Amino acid sequence: MTRPRTRIQAKNSATILEAALEVFSANGFRGATLDQIAEVAGLSKPNLLYYFPSKEAIHAALLAGLLKTWLDPLRAMNPDGEPLAEIMGYVRRKLELSRDFPRESRLFANEILQGAPRILPAIEGELKALVEDRAQILTGWMDQGRIARLPPHHLIFSIWALTQHYADFDVQVRAVLGEGHDPFTEAEGFLETLFTRLLKP
Questions:
Q1: For 51, how many CA atoms within 13 A lie in the half-sphere containing its CB?
Q2: How would you classify residue 150: left for phi > 0, otherwise alpha for psi between -120 and 50, otherwise beta?
Q3: What's the pTM?
Q4: Are 148 and 198 within 8 A, CB to CB?
Q5: String of b and e for 43-59 (b: at least 16 CB within 10 Å)?
Q6: Cα separation of 105 and 166, whole Å?
Q7: Is pLDDT above 90 for 3?
Q8: pLDDT for 77-89, tens place per residue?
Q9: Residue 131 · residue 156 · CB < 8 Å
Q10: How far separated are the first and last CA of the chain, in Å rounded?
Q11: Which residues bind DNA (predicted)?
């Protein structure tokens, strides 16, 4: 039987994961080292290894938490709701994730760009199953004439692309827009117009 963690152990684990998120999102998995993570966490390397046996174990813990965060907005789509409102709610939730969790988004993007070696089973399993379920909901709304007929998977992909871009390419977006612009506020209005017109029956 595993003993419950003490408050100090829980705090140190959270500190390590926060430091690892900073290091991994900046340097990618290959460029990150345990020494870097320990330094950012303010812990010795042996102390860090007491909580996580390897860099891979830290990365896996981050990705597991991240996948849940990433899937929750899609899970929140209500099949009994008003279709356009549900889809736009999903767009807004994804845009808020990009605004509030840019490091997590870049961590996920880096993993995908490397071929998803550590998260592919979850993508092929949990993520795929949820997307298939939501694609059926979208198709049902299309069959009822409540939204325009579009390839449902590609509709979901387009929402990912048009929201996560603002996290993964934040420096580029802000450099092009210049000072005095809030990219997320402007993006929300643009995306609402875009998807409302696209999905109109």
A1: 25
A2: beta
A3: 0.85
A4: yes
A5: beeeebeebbeebeebb
A6: 10
A7: no
A8: 999 999 999 999 9
A9: yes
A10: 57
A11: 33-52
- Output the six-digit token pair for 134: 């939501």
Structure-block tokens of residue 106: 């870049």
Query: Whole-angstrom Cα distance, residue 113 to residue 169?
Result: 14
Residue 156 neighbours by CB distance under 10 Å = 19
- Region of residue 9 (phi > 0: left; psi between -120 and 50: alpha; otherwise: beta): alpha
Q: Per the structure block, which two tokens stand in for 33?
A: 């080292």
CATH code of 62-199, in short, is 1.10.357.10
Q: Rounded CA gap, 104 and 110, in Å?
A: 10
CA angle 68, 65, 11 (to 5 degrees): 140
For the chain, which residues make up each domain, given as ranges? 1-53, 62-199
- CB of 201 within 8 A of CB of 146? yes
